Amino acid sequence: MSSEAISQDLKKAMRRLKLSPMLATLPERLTLARQQHMPHQDFLELVLSDEVERRDRLSAVNRSRKARLDPAMTLEAWDESTKVTYDRALWAELVTLRFMEDSNNAVVMGPVGVGKTHLASALGHIACRRGHSVLMVRADHMLKRLKAARLDQTHDQELRKLIRVDLLIVDDFALTKLDQIETHDVYDLVVERHLRASTIVTSNREPGEWLAVLADPLLAQSAIDRLQSAAYELVVEGDSHRRRQKPRRPS
């Protein structure tokens, strides 16, 4: 059956109801319904399910874009043949996102280039598909933005954006030393999100090493204790992906 078999009145009605995307699959669904002598209710359920699935998929894409997630860093794109080691049972548990139900955290640790960012991003994409609000930020960019926001009186607004999101992913945390202002921002962020929303942190350093990076020992200890006490810790070990992917010079 061709698309011309759908009447103009039906097309007009579907556009008014904002269901025009269904026109792309409706001819095939009508053919299938007639071939299988499908009851009207079953046919209606079929075409509406198509539209619900399409909208869910589009919403997930929009959420992941808003979250600033790399579209290539999904669970499906993770290469299981990579020569890295990590606790597979713990990773399987994290993929369920049950840690978010209890507002727990995840810390993904390991050397440079082993895929920490990819794993954290994959969890972010899963959260987007399940309807959660997600934001992924590089730690240094986040702290610079918060510091700059103090100058134009938007600091509270910027901090609230980070606090309110269901899942905050902070990449490359504690890569360089933090000053007093940055340490205070980390403290405020961790305290406000503690047991209220989940945070994923990736780092080349273990939590015990973060103390030396933050400027104020007391604020650092308080923030790290809260973050770590409610966190699953996934350690990824192995050679750098980037080193293996480096192009070879022609001989």
Mean pLDDT across the residues is 90
Shape: elongated
- The CATH class of the largest domain is Alpha Beta
Q: Compute the gyration radius: what is it?
A: 24 Å
| Fraction in helix | 40-55%
Q: Separation of termini?
A: 59 Å
Quick one: how many beta strands? 7
Strand order of the largest sheet: 3-4-5-2-6
**Computed structural class:** alpha/beta
Parts with pLDDT < 50 across at least 5 consecutive residues = none
* CATH T-level fold name of the largest domain: Rossmann fold
User: How large is the share of residues in beta strands?
Assistant: 5-15%
Give the count of helical stretches: 12
Write a brief structural summary:
The chain contains twelve helices and seven strands. The chain has 251 residues and is of the alpha/beta class.
What does this structure look like?
With 251 residues, the protein is an alpha/beta fold. The chain folds into two domains: 3-66, no CATH class; 84-244, 3-Layer(aba) Sandwich (Rossmann fold). Helices cover 51% and strands 12% of the residues. The protein is built from twelve helices and seven strands. It has helices at residues 8-16, 26-35, 40-66, 88-95, 98-101, 116-129, 139-149, 155-164, 180-193, 207-210, 217-229, 241-245; strands spanning 84-85, 105-109, 134-138, 167-171, 198-203, 231-235, 237-238. Strands 3-4-5-2-6 form a five-stranded parallel beta sheet. Helix 3 (40-66) packs antiparallel against helix 6, helix 8 packs across helix 9 and helix 9 packs parallel to helix 11. The chain is elongated. The mean pLDDT is 90.
